[in-house]
Write a structure and sequence with these properties.
heterotrimer, A alpha/beta, B alpha/beta, C alpha/beta, B: alpha/beta, Rossmann fold, 38% helix, 16% strand, globular, C: alpha/beta, FAD/NAD(P)-binding domain, 5 domains, 5-stranded parallel beta sheet, 19 helices, 34 strands, 29% helix
Chain lengths: 323, 145, 663
């Protein structure tokens, strides 16, 4: 963990980069936010890489890589998929970036620890199991119980693109990330409607999902654009939340790397990743396995076709959702 | 005035200019009947259909939306309907996943020579949507008077 | 706010009988923006058009909605009317209240209500219309003809005669096509080579024609008036500029066992060959599959004997890029593969031949020097059975084709007649389903075969052909006499169905031209535009569009040429102004639109924009070439930010129509 901070200092000191994109500590030790550090002093004072560095930094590169000078960025395996996807879409200037890949075995946040039963936390020691210091004494919990939702269904330890690696390069790992989607598919339409109505009606249109999503990086979002015909900012009615989330999911289809940030940041705990994963699952089943950001050359499935693609009526007849 | 009338669904049919719109014209030329609640919007190609238009139609009170385009392989623009096919498959699957009745959406390939198919498709679609009843799940109540 | 005029057409009683046109024009008069609304008996008539024109001037209309027949009928008419009145033609929208309303509904109240809604949608759309200017694109005054058979040759000659440059791309080493393999032509029985070879020579000598023989079209880009075509000139391993066509190499080449495709494998040729004596261009070609020098570097005889020093074993395929204003597909046909027709013993006996093979056996330049001899033992056949419709008119069968191949009845009559004429001692039987002889002097020809030449025409199909003791046992049924026939034949000739050349399907994809289920090119209109493809700038000549005999092919070739000439004689073409247009401020530069564009109309540039605090930002943004864009709109949906929109069918316009309909 300390090696990451040392690397940040080393890169700045050597002049290899003029800025470092990392995480800085907030009000609580588990409250880390992305930040740009411009000097060794700033890094020494504020840079933190810990169990709580869950935030995906790649999206910030869209703006940062276009500024003067080179910037270093730290990328966990899942972040590196977004990093590659953004390069495929010409959104970031790779030559202005020094990418440091960091191997990762799962991240936590305050909430995930709280839901694992910790209160009044003052610190955590990482390891096979976590030792959580609290106001009421130390607590030992299994790490896998306290992981972020997105880390519980980790799909890959592979860092797709990097200039330098901290830790070992990893591989794709088996994941049952579609289990939840399959569970929903197995429900009746009425049950699914009720499920989503309950979930989506909590939406307050804070746009946190949109703001954190590396795929949601339009110069101007259609929902902010008065000429798009769908502009709306307030939470006007139930349909518009649906429409926003459906369109948002559709717009990131085949571009979403399943980094899970949308659900992580949602203040209302709406499982938004289940929308994206539904599209990913459908694409895998209908058009062949595809992982956004896994490589530089593949053609995104929505910008591609086969002459013998299934007809849309396939959703009437196939299993899962059609039951 | 609306009160006494039997409810009939509002159907929006997006038709590509080259095949399906001509097919719809042909069904008119041949005087093949289909219900008046089908209203056609002409688009250049099935690939012009933005999912937003479909959601907008549902939001504003449509009970069913159908897209008609050239048969795969016959697109006037060569590849448009192939893209449309993937987009609509995924979108419809998503709507179904959200619990919206899947029968409210449909894609049908209708060539310029298939006037009879166009009329038959519309008759069938109207029948299906009528059986489903009003679109309550996706409709934006605010927009209804 | 637009000032909109609404014009409701009665179309006589076509609309007015089912739609209360007065109610429609009154209801639409209440719509926001509508300043004038009326109805009239025939809007497309001169009086109707005058009415529109007068009202545009009188009310200063900025938008016009015509509620009438399909825009596919009269959109252009009304656009021109408005243009004459000084209104931009793209400020017109048509509400289709005939084909899509009055003609399909019976209930007048229902139809009237629908007509009003359709009118409202058109008004909502026209509110958002913007004046559009059709750009122009220049026409490259050069034509490409793909296929060098009689269809391609005739098309090229006619285009060249009009003074335009034309290139022929032919995949075989020589032009000429199937007609070179035919012995005599029906119904005049003149020699095919005698009428074809002068045309081939004309092609070679015409200074407006360039022949790319032994070449194939590799890629086609662009659009009508501006096609960019990549042609692969396959390596002949012979320098065509040096080769004199003396043929010495083809005599000295030690590799003698190469099946001669010109004679359909009935005899052999050498590894270096000239297909036939009148080949154009008359140059040698080395077959790399058989040449010892190319395969294992051992030989070199042809290079040694060539006085012109034309042999070049290191020659490579050459890629040529050319620009054309128009492209003619003339890819022709082939007889179908008969190996699946086991019942006729085609694979079991060499004496069961296809009709084209029979042509070669009758031809003076063929493998037997024009004497009809059985391929198995070289003996003169005495009983010959012709079987028609082999693979033609097969319903749903995997082996055959559903259509009639059209030429078989006539050439079979020709073969039968020629046999009887040359060899009066032969018995000739023809088995047929129907004899189809529509065509000038065709039926007379067939009757001559029966009446004068004594050919036995038997209505019925051959069930089985079994080779036995040097004979072919033919089992057949005579449907008219209702009896089974057993004939001991010396030869059986199968009139194989014809199918489009295999190269046509990939070519159609490159040309974005459509095909039917049998892989024949589709015409723009089966009756009124038979030589044009639905894709602008692509024309059809010969059997690639459907089975045809020579006179029909030549007629169609001339028709295609005249269409090409009409196109090439224009300096500029008007472009469709309904093209995609990106809003640079919103463009992400992500390349999504570029990936789905079928025309390659989208490119990217790095452009400077004003950033915050007086900085400049360099951003990658999409650019659309309006001359290339055809306005399909694929890009508009691929664009997440909505930066890409389609003029004439914009997001807001379509959304406004949706809103008007769903209200």
């Amino acid at each position: 963990m300390q090696r990451v901070k040392e690397k940040a200092i080393e890169l700045l000191r050597s002049g290899e980069v003029s800025r470092v994109l990392g995480w800085k500590t907030g009000e609580f030790f588990y409250d880390l936010t992305p930040a740009v550090f411009e000097s060794v002093e700033e890094v020494e004072k504020g840079f933190v890489f810990s169990l709580f560095s869950g935030a995906n930094l790649s999206k910030y590169l869209i703006a940062e890589s276009k500024k003067e000078g080179k910037i270093a960025v730290f990328l966990k395996p899942c972040d590196s998929f977004s990093f590659v996807q953004l390069q495929k879409e010409h959104r970031i200037k790779r030559e202005n970036i020094y990418a440091v890949g960091i191997q990762c075995d799962g991240m936590c946040d305050g909430e995930s620890l709280r839901s694992a039963g910790c209160e009044g936390m003052t610190g955590v020691e990482d390891g096979e199991s976590l030792t959580v210091h609290t106001l009421y004494g130390d607590q030992v919990i299994e790490k896998k119980e306290a992981l972020l939702g997105k880390c519980q269904t980790c799909k890959s330890k592979r860092i797709v693109d990097f200039d330098e690696l901290i830790g070992q390069q990893g591989e794709d790992v088996p994941s049952d990330r579609f289990a939840e989607v399959a569970k929903l598919e197995a429900m009746t339409p009425e049950e699914r409607f009720a499920f989503w109505r309950t979930e989506l009606s909590r939406c307050i249109r804070c746009n946190a999902c949109r703001n954190v999503c590396p795929a949601c990086s339009c110069e101007k979002c259609v929902f902010d654009n008065p000429v798009s015909g769908v502009q709306n900012k307030a939470v006007a009615d139930s349909f518009e939340e649906n429409m926003f989330h459906i369109i948002r999911a559709f717009h990131v289809t085949a571009r979403c790397t399943d980094c899970g940030e949308c659900s992580r940041v949602c203040p209302q705990n709406i499982p938004l990743h289940l929308l994206n994963r539904k599209f990913i699952k459908d694409i895998n089943e209908l058009y062949g396995d595809y992982q956004a950001g896994a490589d530089f050359d593949s053609r995104p499935p929505l910008m591609d076709f086969r002459m013998d693609d299934p007809e849309p009526s396939v959703i009437y007849t196939r299993g899962g959702a059609a039951k | 005035m609306q009160v006494n009338k039997e409810w009939t669904p509002t159907i929006v049919a997006f038709c590509c200019n080259w095949c399906s719109y001509a097919g719809a014209d042909l069904s008119g030329t041949n005087r093949l009947q289909y219900p008046a609640n089908v209203k056609i919007i002409r688009i250049p190609c099935s690939c012009r259909l933005n999912p937003m238009f479909i959601l907008r139609a549902f939001q504003r009170g449509a009970d069913g939306v159908i897209l008609c385009g050239c048969h795969p392989g016959d697109c006037h623009y060569t590849t448009g309907n192939y893209y449309a096919r993937r987009r609509m498959t995924l979108l419809f699957s998503m709507l179904e996943y959200l619990g919206i009745e899947r029968e409210r959406t449909r894609v049908e390939w209708v060539s310029a020579a298939e006037g009879a198919k166009f009329a038959a498709t519309m008759n069938d679609f109207v029948k299906t949507v009528t059986a489903l009843g009003e679109n309550k799940r996706l409709e934006d109540l605010r927009c209804k008077e | 706010m637009q000032k909109i005029g609404v014009f409701v057409c009665w179309c006589g009683s076509n609309i007015a009988a089912t739609v209360d046109v007065e109610a429609v024009s009154q209801a639409l008069a209440q719509e926001p923006g509508v300043v004038f609304s009326t109805n009239y008996q025939y809007m497309c008539s001169q009086t109707g058009q005058d009415l529109i024109r007068d009202k545009i001037k009188e009310y200063g209309l900025t938008g016009v909605v015509v509620c009438s027949c399909s825009p596919r009928m009269h959109e252009n008419t009304f656009r021109k009317t408005c243009e004459k009145a000084g209104l931009n033609p793209y400020m017109v929208e048509i509400a289709n209240i005939r084909e899509q309303c009055s003609w399909i509904h019976k209930d007048k109240a229902e139809a009237t209500e629908k007509a009003i809604i359709l009118g409202r949608a058109a008004i909502a759309k026209v509110q958002l219309n913007a004046p559009l200017q059709a750009g122009t694109s220049p026409v490259k005054k050069r034509a490409l003809v793909i296929g060098g058979g009689i269809a391609g040759i005739q098309t090229a000659l006619d285009i060249a005669d009009a003074g335009f440059q034309v290139d022929i791309v032919e995949k075989k080493p020589t032009i000429g096509g199937k007609m070179t393999q035919i012995d005599k032509t029906f119904p005049t029985l003149d020699c095919a080579a005698c009428i074809l070879t002068p045309k081939m020579v004309d092609c070679a000598q015409n200074e407006n024609i360039h022949i790319y023989a032994y070449s194939e079209v590799e890629a086609v880009k662009g659009f009508v008036g501006n096609f960019k075509v990549t042609i692969r000139k396959k390596a002949r391993f012979v320098d065509t500029t040096k080769c004199t066509g003396c043929g010495l190499c083809t005599e000295k080449c030690p590799q003698k066992k190469v099946p001669n495709e010109f004679n359909l494998g009935l005899d052999n040729r050498r590894a270096i060959y000239i297909p036939f004596a009148q080949a154009v261009p008359k140059v040698a070609t080395i077959d790399p599959d058989y040449c010892n020098m190319l395969k294992n570097g051992k030989c070199g005889v042809c290079a040694k004997v060539c006085g012109a020093n034309a042999i070049d074993y290191k020659q490579q395929d050459e890629l040529i890029e050319e620009e054309y204003g128009a492209i003619v597909a003339a890819t022709g046909f082939n007889p179908i593969d008969l190996s699946k027709f086991n019942e006729f013993g085609y694979s079991q006996s060499p004496d069961v031949v296809s009709s084209l093979e029979f042509e070669r056996l009758m031809n003076a330049a063929g493998p037997t020097g024009g004497t009809l001899l059985r391929p198995s033992d070289g003996k003169h056949p005495h009983t010959i059975v012709f079987v028609q419709c082999v693979g033609s008119r097969c319903d749903g069968g995997e082996k055959g084709k559903p259509y009639c191949s059209k030429i078989c009845c006539m050439y079979t009559a020709k073969h039968a007649m020629l046999c009887r004429e040359k060899y009066p001692d032969t018995d000739v039987y023809v088995f047929y389903i129907d004899v189809r002889t529509p065509g000038k002097n065709f039926d007379e020809f067939y009757r001559r075969a029966v009446e004068e030449y004594g050919v036995h025409y038997i209505k019925g199909m051959v069930g089985k052909v079994v080779p036995e003791n040097g004979k072919l046992k033919v089992q057949a049924s005579d449907l008219l006499d209702n009896r089974q026939l057993h004939i001991d034949a010396d030869m059986v000739v199968l009139a194989a169905a014809i199918e489009p050349d295999k190269s046509a399907r990939p070519l159609a994809t490159m040309l974005t031209a459509s095909m039917d289920t049998n892989d024949f090119f589709t015409e723009a209109h089966p009756k009124l535009r038979p030589v044009e493809s639905p894709t602008a700038g692509i024309f059809l000549s010969g059997a690639c569009q459907g089975p045809k005999d020579i006179p029909e092919t030549v007629a169609q070739a001339g028709a295609a040429a005249s269409k090409v000439i009409g196109l090439l004689s224009k300096d500029h073409l008007l472009c469709n102004p309904c093209t995609a247009q990106p809003d640079e401020m919103m463009c992400n530069g992500c390349s999504s639109c570029e990936k789905v564009c079928p025309y390659g109309a989208i490119t990217y540039i790095d452009k400077e924009f004003r950033g915050p605090n007086r900085t400049t930002l360099l951003r990658r943004v999409a650019q659309v070439n309006p001359a290339v864009c055809q306005g399909c709109g694929a890009c508009t949906v691929a664009c997440m930010s909505g930066a890409m929109d389609l003029k004439g069918f914009s997001n807001r316009q379509i959304m406004a129509e949706v809103d008007a309909i769903c209200k």
